[in-house]
Specification:
heterodimer; A: 570 residues; alpha+beta; five-stranded antiparallel β-sheet; 18 helices; 23 strands; elongated; B: 84 residues; mainly alpha; 2 helices; rod-shaped
Chain lengths: 570, 84
C-alpha cells in the first residue's frame, strides 16, 4: 500500500499531474494550431482541402427542346456517353478489346486497328446508348475495365429524322448550337449549370456530396413550322428533284394573314442551310406581279388599259430588243400580259411607272432589305439605287431581271398582294418558354407597312387568278378552290457574260383560296437538268403542296360549283 | 479520474464522429450510384419516348398506310369539316 503522507506519495501525485499536463499539452498545441489555421488562415487551407477532397463534376450544358407549332418535338438533347481507352492503363489488351467488341457491337478488328493507330488514348465509340452504358459501367471496377473511360456527352435527337434540319441546324455533343435555329438561339436555349460537388474516389467513381442549387432558365423553342406541312413540302420537293434534277430547290409556305412560316423545305438538305433565306436569284416573271401591282397602285396604268405589242418586238434602247414569242396579239390587256407572261408588256408598264416609283415600291415590298427573322446567312438581295438605272434597267426590272432577291422576300410580297396590301413581318419562331415559367412571345402578328391599296390587292388577285385559269399557271389549278399565282422562268447569268439560254431558275408563287387566303406557296427549282418552265415544273409542285395543306387544314372549297358533275344533255 | 473520464468521453465522441463520416461517405457513394442510375434510366426513357415519336411521324405513318393498308391521301374537296 502507498504511503499517503510520504515524499513518494507527494512525488507520485506531482509526477502524475506533470504527466497529465504533458499529455494534454500536445492536443492543446494542436488545438491552438487548428484555431490559428481555422481563424487566421481559413481561406488558404479551406481552398486546399476543397481541392484535395472534392471533385467538381461539370454537368455539361443544359439545352432546351425545339417544338413545332403544335408542340411536337423536333429536337431534344439526350444524355449519352463516349467510351475512350487509355492504352497504358489496360491490363489485358485481348480481354478488354473482346469485352468492348461484345458490349458495343463493334468488330474487334476495328477496335484493334484504332488501338494500333493511336499512341495512347482513343475513343472506341461515341454517343453510347443507355443500354450499352449500363453494361459498361460495372466493368470500370474490374480488371477488364481498367483503362476505359466513360465521358458524359449529349446527343441531339430529331424524332422526325432530317425533316426541317435545314431550319433547325445542329448542336454538338456539348450542347452548343452550331448552325440554323440552334445557333441563332444558343443564348436562350442553353445554360451552363453549376457544377456538382463530389468526393474524389478511385477510378473516377463519384461519391455524391451535394448539388449546388442554381435556378434553371434554359428556354425551349416553339417554331411556327408545322411538321406535317414541312413533310408535305419536303415530299413534293423530293419528287420534283427526282423528275427535273435541279441543282437546288426550295418550297416555302407562309400564312399571308400572319406572316408565319409554316414550312421551308430545301434541296440539298443540310443542317442550317435554309435556302429560303440564303438563296439569292433573279426572279424573272414572278416579279411581274410586283411591277404591275406597283403600276396599278400608283395609277400609271389601269386594269382596262391595252398595251401595244405590235410585231411582238420592242426596242427598249438602241440595240436592246425584247421579243414575245408566246402570243400572236398586237395588243394585250394587263390580265393577258400576266397570263402569257409578256416581257414587252411588263417592261413597258415598268417604264410607264418610272425608275423612282418602281424603286420605291420595290423597297416598300421589302426587297433589298433583310427580314427581321435574322436567319444565319440571310441575304438582303441586291437592288441598285434607281439613280443609277438606265432605261433598259427600268424595263428589265419590270420582268424580273437586274435584281437579286431572296425567296422569303418574294413570298412576303405575294402575301402582301394576297392579304389586302400589308407587308407582314415573317416569323419562324412562335415563342420561347423558359424553365422558370417565363414566356417570350416572338410571333406577334405585325404589319410592317401598307404596300398597296386594298383595291389594288383585289385587282391583282383577279389578275393572278386569271393566270392560273387561262394562262401559264394552268397546272396549279385545284378543283373546287380558287388559286392565284404567277409562273417564272428566268435565264441564269452566264460565266462568260450575258445570260445562259439553257440554264434557268423555274418558279411558281401563288396563294389559295383567293377570298380568304390561307397559304402563300413559293416553289423554286434552280437550274433543272431537264429543260422545263415554271408552268410545267413548278406549278404542279405548287398544286401538290397546296392540295395537301388544304386537306391538312380542312379548308372548305370556295368554288363548289367546280365539283358538281356536268349536267347531262337531254 | 476526471481527466481520464474526459479523455474517455472525448474518445467516444471522436469514434462517433469517425463513424458518422464513414456513414456519410457510404451514403454519398450510394447516392452517387443512384443518381447515375436515375440519369441512365431517364436517358433510356427519353430514347423510348423519341422512338414512339419517330413511329408517329408522317413518314412512317404514310409508309404503313400506303404499303400495309393500301390507303392514299385524299383530295381536299373530299374533306368534310363538321361545325360545332
Amino acid at each position: 500500500m502507498l504511503k499517503q503522507n510520504g515524499p513518494f506519495a507527494y512525488n507520485a501525485k506531482v509526477r502524475m499531474k506533470w504527466c497529465g499536463l504533458a499529455c494534454l499539452m500536445a492536443p492543446l498545441l494542436i488545438t491552438l494550431q487548428l484555431f490559428y489555421m481555422q481563424t487566421f488562415r481559413y481561406d488558404e487551407y479551406s481552398d486546399k482541402a476543397e481541392r484535395a477532397i472534392y471533385n467538381y463534376l461539370d454537368e455539361d450544358r443544359l439545352r432546351g427542346d425545339i417544338f413545332d407549332v403544335n408542340g411536337k418535338f423536333l429536337a431534344q438533347s439526350v444524355r449519352t456517353h463516349s467510351c475512350g481507352v487509355s492504352k497504358r492503363y489496360v491490363k489485358d489488351k485481348n480481354k478488354t478489346l473482346q469485352f468492348l467488341s461484345d458490349t458495343l457491337s463493334i468488330p474487334k478488328k476495328q477496335i484493334e486497328n484504332q488501338w494500333n493507330r493511336h499512341r495512347n488514348f482513343f475513343f472506341v465509340a461515341k454517343k453510347i446508348k443507355p443500354d450499352a452504358y449500363i453494361k459498361l459501367l460495372p466493368s470500370l471496377r474490374t480488371s477488364v475495365g481498367q483503362g476505359l473511360d466513360l465521358t458524359p456527352e449529349y446527343e441531339r435527337v430529331h424524332p422526325y429524322g432530317d425533316s426541317a434540319i435545314d431550319i433547325l441546324g445542329a448542336a454538338n455533343s456539348k450542347n452548343l448550337g452550331l448552325s440554323g435555329i440552334e445557333q441563332m438561339f444558343n443564348t436562350e436555349m442553353s445554360q451552363k449549370i453549376s457544377k456538382r460537388r463530389a468526393k474524389r474516389a478511385r477510378r473516377g467513381e463519384v461519391i455524391y456530396d451535394r448539388s449546388l442549387k442554381e435556378q434553371r432558365s434554359v428556354g425551349s423553342l416553339y417554331l411556327t413550322i408545322d411538321i406535317l406541312a414541312q413533310y408535305y413540302a419536303e415530299q413534293a420537293l423530293e419528287k420534283a428533284v427526282k423528275d427535273y434534277e435541279p441543282e437546288r430547290g426550295l418550297i416555302l409556305v407562309q400564312q399571308p394573314q400572319t406572316g408565319r412560316i409554316l414550312a421551308a423545305a430545301s434541296y440539298p438538305r443540310k443542317d442550317g442551310q435554309a435556302l429560303a433565306f440564303q438563296f439569292t436569284y433573279e426572279p424573272g416573271s414572278t416579279f411581274k406581279t410586283i411591277a404591275i401591282a406597283s403600276a396599278l397602285d400608283a395609277g400609271t396604268v389601269s386594269i382596262n388599259d391595252s398595251i401595244d405589242m405590235s410585231g411582238r418586238k420592242w426596242e427598249i434602247a438602241r440595240g436592246v430588243i425584247v421579243r414575245d414569242k408566246q402570243h400572236e396579239k398586237d395588243a394585250l390587256t394587263i390580265p393577258e400580259i400576266m397570263a402569257v407572261s409578256s416581257n414587252i408588256g411588263a417592261g413597258k408598264i415598268a417604264l410607264e411607272l418610272g425608275a423612282k416609283n418602281l424603286f420605291y415600291y420595290m423597297k416598300a415590298f421589302g426587297f433589298g432589305t433583310k427580314t427581321d427573322i435574322n436567319f444565319n446567312g440571310e441575304s438582303k438581295g441586291y437592288i441598285l439605287p434607281y439613280n443609277k438605272w438606265t432605261v433598259v434597267d427600268t424595263a428589265t426590272k419590270g420582268y424580273g431581271y437586274g435584281i437579286a432577291l431572296t425567296p422569303i422576300q418574294l413570298i412576303g410580297a405575294y402575301s402582301a398582294v394576297a392579304n389586302g396590301g400589308w407587308l407582314m413581318q415573317p416569323h419562324l419562331v412562335d415563342r420561347i418558354e423558359y424553365a422558370d415559367g417565363r414566356t417570350d412571345k416572338k410571333a406577334e402578328v405585325q404589319k410592317i407597312r401598307r404596300v398597296i391599296k386594298q383595291e389594288t390587292s383585289d385587282t391583282m388577285k383577279k389578275v393572278l387568278e386569271y393566270v392560273v385559269q387561262e394562262g401559264s399557271g394552268k397546272r396549279a389549278r385545284i378543283k373546287g378552290y380558287s388559286v392565284a399565282g404567277k409562273t417564272g422562268t428566268a435565264e441564269k447569268l452566264s460565266k462568260e457574260g450575258g445570260y445562259a439560254t439553257r440554264h434557268h431558275v423555274v418558279s411558281f408563287c401563288g396563294f389559295t383560296p383567293i377570298e380568304n387566303p390561307q397559304f402563300t406557296i413559293l416553289v423554286i427549282l434552280d437550274n433543272p437538268a431537264k429543260y422545263t418552265f415554271g408552268g410545267t415544273a413548278a406549278a404542279p409542285v405548287f398544286k401538290e403542296v397546296a392540295e395537301a395543306l388544304l386537306t391538312m387544314q380542312g379548308v372548305p372549297p370556295d368554288r363548289p360549283e367546280e365539283l358538281q358533275p356536268p349536267a347531262k344533255n337531254k | 479520474m476526471k481527466i481520464f473520464a474526459l479523455v474517455f468521453a472525448f474518445s467516444v465522441f471522436a469514434f462517433g464522429v469517425a463513424m458518422m463520416r464513414i456513414e456519410v461517405t457510404r451514403s454519398g457513394r450510394a447516392i452517387g450510384q443512384l443518381h447515375n442510375e436515375v440519369e441512365v434510366k431517364r436517358a433510356r426513357n427519353q430514347y423510348l419516348e423519341l422512338e414512339v415519336l419517330r413511329l408517329q411521324s408522317p413518314q412512317v405513318l404514310q409508309t404503313v398506310a400506303q404499303q400495309q393498308l393500301g390507303l392514299r391521301r385524299t383530295l381536299p374537296q373530299n374533306v368534310v369539316v363538321l361545325e360545332d
